[in-house]
Amino acid sequence: MNSSIPAxxxxxxxxxxxxxxxxxxxxxxxxxxxxxxxxxxxxxxxTTAVQILSTLITADAGxxxxxxxxxxxxxxxxxxxIGVTGQFSAVDGLLTGEENLIMMADLYHLGRGEGRRRAxxxxxxxxxAEAGKKLAMTYSGGxxxxxxxxxxxxxxxxxxxxxxxxxxxxxxxxxxxxxLIRELVAGGVTVLLTTQYLDEADQLAxxxxxxxxxxxxxxxxxxxxxxxAPGGHIRxxxxxxxxxxxxxxxxxTAGRDDDALVLQVPNDGSVHSLRALLARIDDASLExxxxxxxxxxxxxxxxAVTGQPTTNAxxxxxxxxxxK
Amino acid sequence: MSTVSYPMADTATMLRRNxxxxxxxxGLSLGALGMPVIMLLLFGLVFGDTFSAGIGGxxxxxxxxxxxPGILLMSIASGTMSxxxxxxxxxxxxxxxxxxxxxxxxxxxxxxxxxxxxxxxTVSLALVVGFAMLLGFRPTASLGDWLLAxxxxxxLTFALTWFAIALGLKSxxxxxxxxxxxxxxxLLPFLSTTFIPLASMPSGIRWFAEYQPFTVIIDxxxxxxxxxPMDSGNGWLSIAWCVAIAIVGYAWAQKSYNKGTAx
Lengths: 324, 263
Fold this sequence. Notes:
The complex is a heterodimer.
Chain A: E1 8-17, E2 20-30, E3 35-39, H1 46-53, E4 61-66, E5 69-70, H2 75-81, E6 82-85, H3 97-107, H4 112-125, H5 141-153, E7 159-163, H6 171-186, E8 190-195, H7 198-204, E9 207-212, E10 215-220, H8 222-228, E11 233-238, H9 241-250, E12 255-257, E13 262-266, H10 271-283, E14 288-294, H11 298-306, E15 319-323
Parallel strand pairs in A: 3-8, 3-9, 6-7, 7-8
Antiparallel strand pairs in A: 1-2, 1-4, 4-5, 9-10, 11-13, 11-14, 12-13, 14-15
Helix pairs in contact in A: 3-4, 3-5, 8-11
Chain B: H1 7-24, H2 27-46, H3 48-54, H4 63-79, H5 81-92, H6 94-100, H7 108-134, H8 143-170, H9 174-180, H10 182-190, H11 203-211, H12 213-226, H13 234-258
């Protein structure tokens, strides 16, 4: 594929169900060999967007090119270039893991020997070699998700759609899924994933588009998006009210929470500014109970661009707590 | 640019999938076999003499001979529940969404269900014939008659299965699918000449029974297997019914399956 052609190019994508507008003029451009995250809360239209781009449902309006093929006029060519792992498990529960993979190999017409070889290779790669002879219905959630992704990879697609690939997974399975996705992209594959987890988009994506109520409200690299959000701060918590009062005088620019005895000192989180702050704390002999560095994360971004917090629990990957 | 299509290979892959399902989850297929066998026992052994006398059968008239062709159609009819439920379950799970985003021969997924059911039903038809013979079924057919009769049974299975799958796709759940095929699996066999001849039916039911496909096909089978007399033209009418049901079922099922997707 020519690298000057974007893997996915979408202009003016519209979709409504009845009078409910689900996607309201989406433009996306995904470069080949990158990870693109479509980020948004439940009901934002993420799944609908993936279903349209993967030929499962049709759009009401919009120009869509996937792998250089016009999706409207040549969906079969698009289908031949993509792999899709949907939100709901797309494995056949009454077949074993190995049989599921061989079925996919047959559908990609790999030939009997090559199909078996590919199935064995993927079972090993996805840590399913032992479970390969068991029915997929007996698999755990994480195993099913891995098998699901392995099935998507049987045909070595150049573009992969992952709809909420880690929703419902435990932290360990989630991290191994992230690792698998990174390895795929290292091999030159393009990934478009949807997620409602801000840390996931931050961890994986080269480009993030924030989707809210069917509209793209922000788009850019994780760094660019973070710049949209208000700056970071250092959070200082105190045990004693008198210490808190004193600190308020020493650090007059800090935001105050008098009930929790917490000060929020504007700070970019760099070592230099942190050292300067610690020096002032030492000079005043302040007894700080807890110090937390808070760099702006995508939660802040989401709040900044939509005016609403995400519905999910906040993430803590960007917070490094240091207790005294 | 268009992609190469592999209709045979893709259908064969889907057929393998469905045969594995039938093998691992035999409940539905065996359940479908249960009803015709129970009917054979009940009507062949328990009610047989009374029915036989009631419809004016004298000596030389064996009710089990009269009964068996209809029971074969009942096996086909009750066998349609399994693919209807299977197709409905498929649609409610992610696996079909996956298939629909792949460059595979479009009708392959449903064709796999149909061919799988044709094979399973053929096995149960052979079992029903064997069982009927144990109970005294004595067909007089030549090899050619057997082949024609088998061809007709397979054609009807193929046609009814497409139709049942179309019905199954209309319902969103497995339970819905098993209910929606009941008219096929109950109404058609019971309101036909399976158990009693047309002449002994009340007029309303008789009108329905006379013009519905099962009666015509049962007549044709009785003619082929037992040499019983039949209206000329019933053979062709049987084939016409199978073709018509197959075409309507296939078109309807494909339409439901492809609904809303990029074509």
